[in-house]
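User: Quick sanity check before I run a bigger batch. Here is a single chain. Can you write out its predicted 3D structure?
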Amino acid sequence: MASENRNAVYTLGGKIKKLRREKGFSQLDLALETDTDKSMISRLENGLYDVPLSVLAKIADALEIPLWLLLQEGKENNIGMLVSFAAEHRKKINALPEEAVRKSVRLMKVAMDLEE
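Assistant: Done. Predicted structure follows.
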């Protein structure tokens, strides 16, 4: 595996590990939610496995986050995408139930904290 590819996978694995722990999932919990196995989750989190996009989509669903949040690199990109999305969908966001807005705010906080 090329060094730059390994670093990208490690960063992705680090994000998954952080989000999994925040959700209160063990590696086994996440594996069961995504129809994979615990060793694959461990290898992914440690940068030892190039995961197919289909598995990443399952992981994002299990962690209840959008897939782009896993794939985005850098805090500035995450914030920029969130601001852009919010501006484009302001009317829809304002019409959301309060719990949905709270969940969205939590996701934004996670996005901003991922690279710190």
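The longest helix spans residues 3-23.

User: Great, the batch can go ahead then.
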